[in-house]
Amino acid sequence: MDLGLTGKVAIVTGAGHGLGAAIAARFAQEGAAVALVDIDETAAEAQASTLRLSGARVLALGADVTSETAVTAMVGRVVEHLGGVHVLVNNAGFTRDMRITKMKVDDWDAVVDVILKGAFLCTRAVMPHMTEQRWGRVINISSRAHLGNPGQANYSAAKAGVIGFTRAMSLEAGRSFITVNAVAPGIIDTEAVRRLAHYEKVKENAEKTTPIPRLGQPEDVADVVAFLASERAGYVSGDVLHVSGGRY
User: Fold this and answer.
1) 30 in a structural domain
2) Taking every annotated instance into account, which residue ranges of this chain make up the domain Ketoreductase (predicted)?
3) Which end of the chain, N or C, is surrounded by fewer C-beta atoms within 10 Å?
4) Domain count of the chain?
């Protein structure tokens, strides 16, 4: 199925590792030019170098998505070097898990700012370009954690906020034929998950409790993101698509 992404320009934040890297690779496979954005520019460049070997047109950029100045400059460089911006994937985020009685203000702010403020700043920066061309796709990476997880008050709140932001933006942007959707992954077998000391227990538990008895793969999420970015999803907006193997 042709997704109609050839020649489009996609920005993927948090693209140096894990889900972001898989999403960037999926766009490149579909013929899109891709800007891989990460606070770790070295990691973004490593992923970009791999994609260039297959002939993809890619750009690696280091940027702090919580900085208005950095985000504005990043989008400007993407437009200058790749010729525009059609798709934004707000994927940057991380966890800093602990019970709330032990959670410091910095632990709250760091997680919420990257996930939620980052989505706000990046979306605001690309919106004029998408509005002018009357075509755009914004895909925000939420999480099954938006339903609430113990020890993840900061992360759960931020990911729930992403869904509210998604629905508000879909109402604002729709008349310009810009769709805004969220993807909520469950437990995905990324390198960050594999580094957990209790990884084997996490994997075993997922296989026992998930209706589809396995961990999700980054490509499972990337495929859904690519669909939402495509011409095929032009009438889907304000929605949340869970990629969780049926586990809610």
Assistant:
1) yes
2) 8-190
3) N
4) 1
Q: Which of 133, 119, 216, 129 is nearest to 168 (CA)?
A: 119
**Residue-by-residue pLDDT tens, the chain, 248 positions:** 789 999 999 999 999 999 999 999 999 999 999 999 999 999 999 999 999 999 999 999 999 999 999 999 999 999 999 999 999 999 999 989 899 999 999 999 999 999 999 999 999 999 999 999 999 999 999 999 898 888 899 999 999 999 999 999 999 999 999 999 999 999 899 988 888 888 898 899 888 899 999 999 999 999 999 999 999 999 999 999 999 999 87
Could you tell me if residue 3 is inside a domain?
no
User: Smallest Cα–Cα separation from 169: which of 125, 124, 117?
Assistant: 124
Q: Which three-class secondary structure state does DSSP give residue 175?
A: helix
d(CA 185, CA 221): 7
Neighbour-count burial of 243, counting CB atoms closer than 10 A to its CB (0-12 exposed, 13-18 middle, 19+ buried): buried
Active-site position among 155, 199, 235, 248: 155
Where does 2-54 show beta strands of DSSP type E?
Answer: 9-13, 33-38
Looking at the domain assignment, is residue 112 inside a domain? Answer: yes
| Domain with 145 in it | 9-241
Give the tokens for residue 53: 């070997």
